[in-house]
Amino acid sequence: MLKNLKDLELAELKKIADKPFYGAILFDWIQNKAAENLDQISNLPKTLRTELKNNGFTLANLKLLKRSAAADGTLKYLFALPDGQKIETVLLNDAGRRTLCVSTQVGCKMACAFCATGRMKFKRNLSAGEIVDQVIQAEKIEKNKIQNLVYMGMGEPLDNYDNVLKSIRILNDKAGKNIGARHITISTCGLVPGIERLADEGLQLRLAISLHAATDSLRAKLMPINKKYPLPDLMRALKIYQKKTGRRLTFEYIMLHGVNDAREQARSLLKLLSGISAHINLIEYNPHARAEFQPSARKAIKEFWWLTTDRGFETAIRYKRGQAVNAACGQLYAENY
Questions:
Q1: Burial 55-64 (b: 16+ CB within 10 A, else e)
Q2: Which residues are annotated as part of the binding site for [4Fe-4S] cluster?
Q3: Could you give all domains of the chain from N- to C-terminal order, each with its CATH number?
Q4: Active site amino acids
Q5: In this predicted model, what pLDDT tens digit does every residue of 13-63 receive, in sequence order?
Q6: Which pLDDT tens digit goes with each residue over 162-171?
Q7: Which amino acids are annotated as binding site, given as ranges?
Q8: Cα(234)–Cα(231) distance, integer angstroms
Q9: I need a surface site. Which of 150, 160, 183, 279 has the fewest CB within 10 A?
């Protein structure tokens, strides 16, 4: 079975090369020069390249199948993985600030009612190298550096914990992409064991929680994971996480007309988040054919924003972006073309 060199951290590459210096060359060519095969690494001895190949090492690359551009500057990439499975990756451009939204799984097990990816069957986890390669390929395609990274694409990142954390270590490495931990966000639907593990990693990441409802009864209807990890358990884990890391938490709240956008639900949210250092993102729902919800009226979103802001929470409204190319929050499905 072939072993993808993109799955390896700098220290691991140094171990498999004859000399640590050659491992550093490998890492530089993979991460900074987007090498597609070992033969391109011309300053690596030919004998070492041959030895690596004979030992089953290769450079496996994502294949771009389609690049879609929305009028607001959002870009979506449909990539084929080496085994033919497909994922989608989204690049957000905000006044020159480039944020890449990466996928961590083919499909998703979580089945959130409002999410297109949740309607896909779960196929498999991505390897660390397949996550990293989304950054490599996006930078190569656009000829621009990625400044911020959000693990908010297809899949639940904490359900693929080890590969996600390894990809972060690779992308954070100063010898490679050097994306600072404070510029990396992991989003979770609320996997309590993963949050507890993450609290002990000592990383200054940003953690975002897909909340979307502040009562167990409603959240369980929208997000089946709430039946396994109800709000009291989730909030307990988040408070421990915050105490250990000192990091403010982000709560994502998708605004669904007639479902979770009433004044009493805003009050429930305020009560739930009491005592937590939190930033709230109110997300305008992006309709798609795989769910029957409708977005809240902008007047309702504004009122919800006012109620949370008035109580001292920093709250932002995230209006629709990339919807025209099905690149908006909750719309990723890796369609066949």
A1: eebebbbbee
A2: 108, 112, 115
A3: 3-58 (1.10.150.530), 63-325 (3.20.20.70)
A4: 88, 329
A5: 999 998 999 999 999 999 999 999 999 999 999 999 999 999 999 999 999
A6: 999 999 999 9
A7: 108, 112, 115, 155-156, 187, 210-212, 286
A8: 5
A9: 279
